[in-house]
Specification:
Shape: globular
Number of helices: 5
Structural class: alpha+beta
Largest sheet: 7 strands, mixed
Oligomer: single chain
Strand content: 25-35%
């Protein structure tokens, strides 16, 4: 009887050891539940909902823009043809939804629909959001629209002194500026007008198929570290290349100021100004 008990005990120990070696226990592994594939056209949106407060992620922010409305709901807007996967993790359960974006019907007129948009996820209890770049990285912060509008006003005041026409504040160029301001924050100390993916700045507003000739962005001024619009304009006016953009025969402008969260809890302003004809 004792010998049999010893054998049973030894067999149990062996089973536990094998389980530990090969990871038989799955108590810590998240369960994955696949949601129904959603098909939308570029420019159209769909809401995804899960039970509980989820952490949301998007695999391809260049295909669709994701905006977290609350912990359980995210709005996904198609940007261009392609597929992206949305992941929502609630405790030990992970939900995955495939979003299939179809190209919108061709329309006449300008190509403003090609301007890239930002995907973001709101940070609870904070003015900040996590913004997703098309290289798979993220930047945390928020936009200061008051600062941006003041830059537009100061720009037009300067142009008036130089007997140049006022620039129209354009929503399409503003969207492009928002992307470029966040991208500038990713560089921390932007030195030129190259994007994180290595492409030139104007590709934010055009399509590769047309070699970006359909972009509404014709010029760009960047700045960082300034505390207000007046200081920003003084910095640009003091630089010959930036001043030239301020005085060129552009007709429209879009400005964004992104307040990037720093490790010490403070913020640094990254300003992007996009010009159109």
């Amino acid at each position: 009887m004792k010998t049999r008990l010893k054998k049973l005990l030894l067999f149990t120990i062996l089973l536990v050891a094998v389980g530990m070696m090969f990871g038989v226990s799955n108590s810590a592994v998240a369960k994955t539940k696949k949601l129904k594939t959603k098909t939308i056209k570029a420019g159209k949106s769909v809401n995804l909902k899960v039970k509980g407060n989820a952490k949301w992620k998007i695999s391809k922010p260049d295909v669709a823009r994701m905006t977290v409305l609350n912990g359980s709901t995210a709005k996904v807007t198609g940007l261009q043809k392609g597929k992206t996967v949305i992941t929502a993790k609630v405790k030990k359960t992970q939900y995955k939804a495939t979003i299939n974006v179809k190209a919108s019907p061709k329309k006449g007129g300008n190509s403003s629909s090609h301007v890239e948009s930002l995907s973001s996820s709101k940070i609870s209890g904070s003015p900040d959001s996590t913004y997703f770049l098309n290289i798979g990285d993220t930047v945390v912060g928020h936009f200061d629209d008051g600062f941006a509008n003041s830059v537009v006003s100061k720009t037009n005041s300067y142009r008036s002194k130089k007997r140049k026409g006022s620039l129209t504040n354009d929503s399409v160029l503003t969207e492009a500026a928002r992307v470029r301001a966040v991208e500038s924050a990713w560089f921390e100390e932007p030195a030129d007008h190259t994007r994180p993916n290595g492409q030139p700045y104007y590709t934010v507003g055009g399509t590769k198929a047309k070699k970006y000739k359909d972009s509404p962005v014709y010029g760009e001024n960047l700045a960082w570290g300034f505390s207000n619009a007046e200081e920003t304009l003084e910095g640009w006016i003091g630089s010959s290349s930036h001043r030239a953009n301020l005085e060129r025969d552009f007709v429209s402008v879009g400005v964004a100021v992104f307040m990037a969260k720093q490790a010490d809890g403070g913020y640094v302003a990254y300003i992007a100004q996009e010009f159109g004809r």
